[in-house]
Write a structure and sequence with these properties.
37% of the residues lie in helices and 20% in strands. By secondary structure, it is α/β, with parallel strands linked by helices. α2 packs antiparallel against α4 and α16 runs parallel beside α17. It is globular, with a radius of gyration of 27 Å.
């Protein structure tokens, strides 16, 4: 039974249940072996971030005592204990899954070889690779010879070495080598027998060459074990609005690199004396989540396991341009006539770039205002904005510097944009700008025209290829009027504080969004009490806001039909004795990341449909600038509902939410067809036709 409060499931335990669903995908033999490997990498990467942020926060909460228990509705020590137990169980499942995958790779004649399994030809090859590329990137630390062990880097792995001399047992020494995966590829394909593929990991290339590194210093026995430290990555920005946010951010990034260890993972076969020594020198205790694992760590690198070695990968369905936006065309002319919605990654993100590029070129366009949260490394969005400036447009980019783990990249974008003449707005202290919005204004024939888009996902062409999101193109005056009020506030938060409150159509965080959704649920409760069909469809990444969960419970007790699609954390119990209707909840984990937030309230003529950038979490509703956007176009409303119904019919990659969060797969009823919603959604959209 998971750690719970009286009415909800603790978010950190629910998050681990979500990551267990990712691990299920790695175990699922219906997936291609390459996808199973990728899911192991995603599981590992997720867990790293969980320890950097959530476990770090819980460690801090322990010192607050009763105050922390009130905030968390549970004892943080109890939560941390449950986390450790769960992570240890997941580690065993991970190891078993990896063993299965290695066995399947072997049946495909693909072998991951370590330094003890090489042929003579491969030994020569590995030696040459080491001398040519690796030697100069490896600088051992003789840790017994230095008074203070340098801080081990987060996100890096280290080879902890035991060095000995067979003629002098007392000559035993310890050393650490950082594996240079930031510079060199983790996987190296070696010369192999015909019909086989042999791969060696970078750390095993170094293991094979330990004699060459340490032999000249009088050692002739060598062993190496991979270790890894995960550190507190939380940025604690000062609440004082007078402080310079850039200075605080730079300080936070610097501190992140030396944050307290929240997890120490090591090869379970590590030399016992070496482990004892490292524990002491690194100042670790059992409270630091010391976790024994397998020989391989930093499994996140396996997200990029070489695809070229597989000859049976089924090509992913290609994104296609929305039929109404195929080039060449003028997108602004099209959306003057009607709203258009992109459903990513099925529709191509290129249409967003095409709209911005069109705005950059069009002589009548005067200004572009846009929010930027997570941008692609070589961002086409940024290129379009810069070209707009060069063409004489006024461009304002609201850049969120505190997008977690993208802070350094966004600092660089800030400098670049300002250098090119873009007006960069850094948002608001203690209030992340998470809304994904854009307004384009042009003056034509003595008339001002405005065009906008509102998205549930980041303006990032890379992630748009595999994140499931929705993006509305519109010229609706009431929506654009509110978007302008949001930008007005973002540009002048001190003098235009009332702008957000004056929004007429868009529910906006932190002022009105929670209250708005509470009111929508209340309206459905009233409908149910009149013995009429009442409905709420709620699609989110995370559901943990207790106030909204309590209102959902009230709706369930009143008989409202509540259907939930929640990819990640779900703090709501789906069954209680007092419910007339249990909460119908599922989670979909498949090839695309379900990222959209969609809300449907009511049926038929009273139906209201919204998209949003905000999850139902305290951070989104109280500490971020977010918008929810109503969908007025009836055809787009129906399109979204059709997609929601496809997802609610999922019975291949869907898991049922229950109070215990056991992650049972949804099983098709006898005789019912299998529905894999991401494939079905692609076919649905591919088959749609549109008329002007």
């Amino acid at each position: 039974m998971p750690v719970t409060s009286k009415q909800t499931i603790i978010r950190d335990i629910s998050w681990l249940a979500f990551n267990a669903r990712v691990l299920q995908e790695a175990r699922d033999t219906r997936n291609h072996i390459q996808d199973r490997i990728r899911f192991l990498g995603i599981f590992s990467n997720n867990l790293d971030e969980f320890f950097r942020v959530r476990v770090a926060a819980l460690n801090k909460m322990v010192s607050l005592g009763k105050e922390a228990k009130m905030h968390l509705e549970a004892n943080p020590d109890k939560i941390l204990k449950k986390i450790h137990q769960t992570v240890m169980a997941h580690q065993q499942e991970f190891d078993a899954t990896l063993s299965d995958i290695i066995g399947e790779l072997g049946r495909k004649q693909i072998f991951i070889k370590d330094e003890t399994q090489l042929s003579e030809e491969q030994k020569a090859f590995v030696g040459k690779i080491f001398d040519a590329k690796v030697r100069t990137e490896t600088i051992p630390l003789m840790i017994e010879s230095i008074p203070h062990v340098p801080l081990l880097k987060d996100k890096s792995i280290y080879l902890a070495c035991v060095l000995g001399n067979s003629h002098s047992p007392t000559a035993r020494r310890y050393a650490l080598i950082e594996i240079p995966t930031r510079i060199l590829p983790r996987f190296v394909i070696m010369p192999s027998a015909e019909g086989t593929t042999d791969i060696i990991l970078l750390e095993d290339i170094i293991r094979f060459n330990l004699k060459g590194i340490f032999g000249p210093f009088g050692y002739d026995t060598f062993s190496g074990y991979i270790i890894k430290v995960t550190r507190d990555a939380e940025l604690d920005l000062d609440n004082d609005v007078n402080n310079n946010i850039l200075e605080e951010l730079a300080k936070g990034l610097k501190n992140r690199k030396k944050g307290r260890a929240t997890r120490f993972v090591y090869d379970r076969n590590i030399d016992a004396n070496l482990l004892k020594y490292l524990t002491k020198r690194l100042g670790l205790t059992k409270k630091d989540n010391m976790i024994p694992g397998g020989r391989i760590h930093n499994f996140k690198d396996f997200i990029d396991f070489p695809q070229s070695i597989f000859n049976d990968i089924r090509p992913r369905q290609q994104a296609f341009v929305h039929p109404m936006l195929k080039q060449p065309c003028r997108i602004m002319d099209i959306i003057e006539k009607r709203d258009v919605m992109l459903h990513l990654p099925y529709h191509s993100f290129d249409s967003v770039i095409d709209l911005l590029r069109e705005a950059a070129i069009d002589p009548a366009v005067q200004s572009i205002k846009i929010t930027c949260y997570r941008l692609a490394k070589n961002s086409k969005v940024i290129n379009a904005l810069i070209n707009a400036v060069r063409n004489g447009k006024s461009v304002t980019a609201v850049l969120e510097l505190r997008a977690r783990f993208d802070e350094e990249a966004n600092l660089k974008w800030k400098a670049y944009l300002e250098e090119e003449g873009v007006n960069v707005v850094l948002g608001i202290n203690n209030m992340k700008v998470h809304a994904k919005i854009c307004v384009i204004k042009k003056r034509e024939a003595n008339q001002t025209k405005q065009y906008a888009f509102v998205s549930t996902g980041n303006l990032n062409e890379n992630t748009a290829a595999y994140y499931g999101d929705h993006c509305l193109f519109t010229t609706n005056k009431t929506i654009i009027g509110d978007l302008n009020r949001v930008f007005e506030y973002l540009e002048n938060p001190l003098t235009k504080a009332a702008s957000l409150a004056n929004c007429k159509t868009l529910p906006v965080s932190p002022l009105t969004m929670r209250r708005f959704f509470l009111n929508q649920l209340t309206q459905q409760i009233r409908v149910a009490r009149r013995k009429k069909p009442a409905l709420a469809i709620i699609k989110l990444n995370s559901l943990v806001d207790n106030i909204l969960i309590e209102k959902m419970y009230a709706a369930a007790r009143a008989g409202v039909d509540i259907k939930m699609i929640v990819r990640g954390i779900c703090g709501a119990q789906t069954k209680q004795k007092s419910f007339k209707n249990h909460l119908n909840g599922l989670s979909i984990i498949d090839g695309y990341l379900e990222h959209a937030r969609v809300f449907v309230f009511g049926e038929d003529k009273t139906r209201k449909v919204f998209i949003s950038s905000a999850d139902w979490m305290v951070r989104n509703l109280d500490h971020r600038i977010e918008v929810a956007c109503p969908i007025f176009d009836k055809d787009i409303q129906q399109e979204l509902i059709d997609i929601m119904n496809i997802q609610l019919s999922e019975n291949v990659k869907g898991r049922i939410f229950d109070n215990e969060q056991t992650n049972h797969y949804i099983v098709p009823a006898e005789g019912a067809p299998s529905v894999r919603s991401q494939e079905a959604t692609y076919l649905y959209l591919k088959g749609k036709t549109y008329t002007d």
